[in-house]
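ok so I'm stuck.
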Amino acid sequence: MTDSVALAWCDPGHVSGRFMDSVLRVTYASMADLVGGVRDHHQVVGHLRTESGPMIAKARNQLVRNFLAKPDWADTEWLLMVDADMVFDENAVRDILANVRHENGKVMTPVVGGLCFGGGHGMIFPTMYRIVDPETNHGNAISIVTDYADGEVVGVDATGAAFLLIHRGVLEHLARVHEEPLPWFAPGVYKGMEYGEDWTFCMRVRKLGYPIFVNTAVKVGHMKEVQLDEATYFSGQSGLTRVDNETPAFERVGETVRARPAAKPLATQQPLNRSQRRMSHKASRNGSKAA
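replied:
not stuck anymore, here's the structure
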């Protein structure tokens, strides 16, 4: 059967060429498959975007609202949230839809994310989380999932919305339970810590009984000073500290929650400064011309 999906993102009025290249690639791949009759199990029907400032929850809710209200997409079952600072290959949509149904056609993974990585404060970690007993996790109620096999579809309690596939039925159910203006995404607090709108979304989904997964075969890059992705996490070439549950990302100091100082530097080289990056870029361009 054909699974149709709409892409959705919010941005400040402009996006990078690398992000738009990713969007075009998955769109063209869908078109080529359908026209050529190579595959019939997915179709990218179009996209939604909204301009947003710092009120990201408001923007995400508007995207969902527009998706559910669009008459032409009444039969489109899937909404794929993508952040405008992510990069992915042409197979990303095909791959994330590959395991959503049982062979009898029943949806088995109604909410599933790609393998994304977060960072900041000199750290990098996969955005896969489970709720655990703080006594077993350095006082933290949130555990980062790092022990996954390549290509595994991992059950989680929460993940980010940077590359998140959501079934229409889940969105409609949330709308019946939670009132406007923030029925899907909203800032929240858990165990005394502030969390983003995507965490609240996951908690609401889990409370309604839907499972959440991350498909680690879907490799997604996160554009920062360096690109945060699986290769960066395992290679250590970025100069970032790899965070796992032996090096927790945050610590509590009095009433303040702050980034924990790097405890296990994984770097094999220091990150380039601005001048070095310019020189490296120039050398790369000269090499390309010579080739």
